[in-house]
Amino acid sequence: MSEHVDIDKQVRVYFLVFGALMVCTLITVGAAALDVSMPVAITIGLFIASIKASLVACFFMHLIDEKRVIYLALGLTVALFVVLLALPILTSFTDQVGDFERVEAPAPH
Q1: Coil vs helix vs strand at 1
Q2: Which of 26, 35, 40, 77 has the fewest C-beta atoms lying within 10 Å of its C-beta?
Q3: What is the percent of the chain where pLDDT is above 70?
Q4: Average pLDDT value for the chain
Q5: 31: Cβ–Cβ under 8 A, 6 or more apart, which residues?
């Protein structure tokens, strides 16, 4: 009988995660309608996608129950992903500040 209760609890968690993924998908569709610059739109999309990927990895791939080494590897991956997530915003500064001055190379003699 206790095995049946555990299975029902796991199925309930899967349905909750599925619902959260559907809500995130609706948020993604809504975010696509926002009138923002391309780097900001990419950043918003990547942020929502990272939430969805985290839910899938934690619950459907069962990484939430893994050992500490897995968490360290995932932490490093998240840190590097945050750096990549910031790149579109950092590159959009040229649109807001202006183009950097071009330096021409001297002609060969």
Answers
A1: coil
A2: 35
A3: 83
A4: 82
A5: 41, 44, 45, 48
Contact 82, 47 (CB under 8 A): no
Structural tokens at position 103: 């330096």
Locate 57 and state its tokens: 């990895």
Q: What is the pLDDT of residues 43-65, one digit of tens each?
A: 899 899 999 998 998 888 887 77
Where exactly are the structural domains of the chain? 2-94
Q: Distance between CA atoms of 80 and 15, rounded to whole angstroms?
A: 30
Helix/strand/coil for 107: coil
For residue 93, CA distances in Å to 21, 77, 101 come to 32, 26, 14
Any idea what the Cα angle at residue 62 is, between residues 24 and 14, rounded to 5°?
A: 50
87 C-beta neighbours (distance < 10 Å), count: 13
The DSSP symbol for 60 reads I
